[in-house]
Design a protein that fits this description.
single chain, 7-stranded mixed sheet, elongated, mainly beta, 0% helix
Length: 118
């Protein structure tokens, strides 16, 4: 499974961006997906998750501002980000995992840069 993240860019504080993550595989509907981000000098942190049955969860810092979703017909996951703040800046990574029997396989995309100007 290969993941391709896109949609990052430069936005002013208070603005919006939508990130996309497209998977190469037809097994997309069986993947649990997530967005992570990493700011310079900081550890990578979990932003949001969405399971294969579209149960979602968010980090407290983005609740009410970010929306995670998926379109299985397009093999794509999205992250709609509203009211962006400078603290949201960083490289955003999409990831996925699935279970094959008792073995878990994890996959990562290459990251897309989000810059928020104050």
């Amino acid at each position: 499974v290969q993941l391709q993240a896109s949609g990052g860019g430069l936005v002013q504080a208070g603005g919006s961006l939508t990130l996309s993550c497209t998977a190469s595989a037809s097994v997309f509907s069986s993947l649990s997906m997530a967005w992570y981000r990493q700011a310079p000098g900081k550890r990578r942190e979990l932003v949001a998750t969405i399971t294969e049955v579209s149960v979602f969860n968010y980090a407290d810092s983005v609740k009410g501002r970010f929306t995670i979703s998926r379109n299985n017909a397009k093999n794509t996951m999205y992250l709609r980000m509203d009211n962006l703040q400078p603290s949201d800046a960083g490289v955003y990574y999409c990831s996925a995992h699935r279970w094959i029997g008792s073995r878990r396989s994890d996959y990562w995309g290459q990251g897309t840069q989000v810059t928020v100007s104050s």
